[in-house]
Design goal:
Blueprint (H helix, E strand, L loop, with lengths): L9 H18 L5 E2 L3 E2 L5 E2 L3 E3 L4 E6 L7 H21 L4 E6 L2 H8 L4 H8 L2 E5 L4 H14 L10
Parallel strand pairs: 5-6, 6-7
Antiparallel strand pairs: 1-4, 2-3, 4-5
Helix pairs in contact: 1-5
Length: 157
């Protein structure tokens, strides 16, 4: 894994918490858990960003701006697999969400002509978009630049 001298994930964590709270407000659920450790069997656990066993809700939050790069698409695929595994092991169908702060990512995930968009739709995974505050968006943008998350030193990859 690459190390980034100026990388600071505090803006990403702050953005995730903001998105979690926006999602929780929309659903009007106070007992929604953030980063809960969910036991699947005696040796396997998962840690979804959003979880409620009582309300059968599971979700992942993506605090990323701009279009998804290949590695980020793999992360989305792994998140989808994690949510589907939860359903299979629990023997119950949970309502599944991917929560984003980027309109570009939202468009990619809603595009049913891509394998990720098609998979998302076939498994009933909803995409929720919440815009960040201007201040938080700027902090996240600066963090992503320091981590070179845009690729090759520019915002568009």
């Amino acid at each position: 894994m690459a190390k980034y001298e100026n990388a600071d994930s505090s803006a990403q964590c702050e953005a995730e918490m903001f998105l979690f709270n926006e999602f929780r407000k929309e659903l009007q659920l106070d007992n929604l858990s953030y980063n809960a450790i969910v036991t699947l069997d005696s040796e396997v656990t998962i840690k979804p960003d959003v979880y409620s066993g009582d309300h059968k809700i599971i979700g992942e939050i993506h605090s990323h701006l701009g279009k998804l790069k290949p590695a980020q698409k793999h992360k989305v695929a792994a998140d989808i697999l994690k949510m589907l595994l939860n359903d299979k092991v629990k023997g119950k169908e949970f309502k599944k969400y991917i929560i984003v702060c980027s309109e570009e990512e939202q468009k990619q995930l809603l595009n049913e002509k891509s394998h990720l968009g098609f998979t998302r739709k076939k498994f009933g995974i909803e995409v929720r978009y919440y815009p960040l505050t201007p201040e938080l968006k700027e902090k996240l943008k600066n963090t992503m630049k320091k981590q070179d998350m845009y690729g090759k030193g520019n915002e568009n990859g």
